[in-house]
Amino acid sequence: MKKIIMSAVALTAIMGSVNVASAADGINIFSDVKVKGQIRPRAEYVDVTDNGRDKGAALTARTHLVVSAGLLGVENLSATVGIQSVNNFGYTHYDSKANGQDQYEVIKDPNFAMLSEASLNYKTGKTALHAGRSQLNLDNQRFIGTVGWRQLERSYDTVSATDNSIENLKIFAAYLYGTQGVGAGDTAETNSVLLNVKYKVGDALTVTAYDYMLSSLSDTLGLSLTGKFDAGAKFTYRAEYALQKDATMEYGSASTQKNVKADATYYNLDLATNISGVIAGLNYEVLSGKNADNTKTTFNPKNGTNHKFNGWADVFYVAGKPDGGLKDANIRLGYKAKGFGKVLAVYHNYTADTTITTGASNNLGSEIDVVYVNKIPGVNGLKGLLKFASFSKGDVANEFDASKKDKQVVWAQLDYKFTTK
Q1: Which of 41, 266, 295, 319 could form a disulfide with 242 if both were Cys (CB 3.0 to 4.6 A apart)?
Q2: What is the pLDDT of residues 337-383, one digit of tens each?
Q3: Is the bond preceding residue 322 a cis peptide, omega within 30 degrees?
Q4: Residue 144 backbone dihedrals phi, psi, to 5 degrees
């Protein structure tokens, strides 16, 4: 940990010395240098019943260092560079999907390093312009997110503009030309357009409309209503509907990359409250599935932070699966207080949205998730986490669930973040 902090300080000093030397020549290359970093060691254990694999156990650490600075003395012009690495310390008793250890269960945290940020940014008035690589999360990350839970967090290559010129209105538009991260070598070129417009009517209502045109996949158009209100207790809510249509954008010359068809729907209803530290919430989410004649497609949140949704065991982590879609009815209960930290338990009940075979069961199983997180006393910026997920399979005969098994996952993690100026 000390070595990382010293490296960050050294890098700041180097950039500062370059800045001073350049200033002597009348050129101010770097100014207002800022460094932020993260060190996140984690132990993860995975056991899948009767899967034909040995239990997976991983000990990994994420190291993430980001440096930003004013550039060339131009007001409101800045540059950002970041490096992210995952180290498994030579311990490979798990299948990272890149290490060839497929006798073990999958834990998708490869031993890998990548450039996580490399961008130029410029602000003019209330408009921010961005070009390059960054970590991008939109709304609740359901459709565009970094999958921050995995050690190798996803980055996006974009040219974007964010405008706040009109009070309470935020407009985001981006051309997305590439992604990288989550798995080793998970690099994809694309030709996509992201649009997101958010208007805050008041505390009780914020309206968000979006259109994510992912090349050779689908267009996801949606509308969400979010807000908070007081009804004897303070509540927050979310009501969201989205549909996927034929892809507007194309990438590549193959027939499978042109005239791509999609026809699927999604909705999400959520209500939550916090009464004197007691957390309670209800959620119902539906991702539609295929039908018998294949005129419908399965709703696919390909670039979403899927770990946040549908259970932490990641049984439904593969976007667009199962074929019959997914209905997730879940309830959460927890407690949060200063000094105590936060404990949260979630129960999920899963069913398929469609059953193609007459009489087939739609029972996809259930899951119990529990997490506890708290600050570590005496060390500023350090948190500890314990997390558990237990998935119980549904009907064996279920055509959408035949490959699913009971699954248990346990995590123990430390997370240290720091900033310097």
Answers
A1: 266
A2: 999 999 999 999 999 888 765 556 788 899 999 999 999 999 999 99
A3: yes
A4: -130, 110
pLDDT of 292 > 80? The answer is no
DSSP 135: -
**Which one-letter DSSP state was computed for residue 54?**
B
From residue 247, alpha-carbon distances to 223, 250, 391, 413 in Å are 19, 7, 34, 40
Whether 12 shows a pLDDT value over 50: the answer reads no
> Terminus-to-terminus CA distance in the chain, angstroms?
18
Question: Which residues fall within 8 angstroms of residue 21, CB to CB, at 6 or more apart?
Answer: none
Tokens linked to 119 = 């961008």
CA distance 335 to 353: 33
d(CA 315, CA 1): 34
pLDDT band at residue 291 under the 50/70/90 scheme: confident
DSSP, res 320:
T
* Helical spans, DSSP H, in 278-394: none
User: How many other CB atoms are found less than 10 A from the CB of residue 71?
Assistant: 19
Contact between residue 369 and residue 349 where contact means Cβ atoms under 8 Å apart: no
> Which tens digits make up the pLDDT trace of 177-219?
999 999 887 899 999 999 999 999 999 999 999 999 999 999 9
Output the DSSP codes for 273-324: EEETTEEEEEEEEEE----TTS-S-----TTS-GGGSS-TT-TT-STT-STT
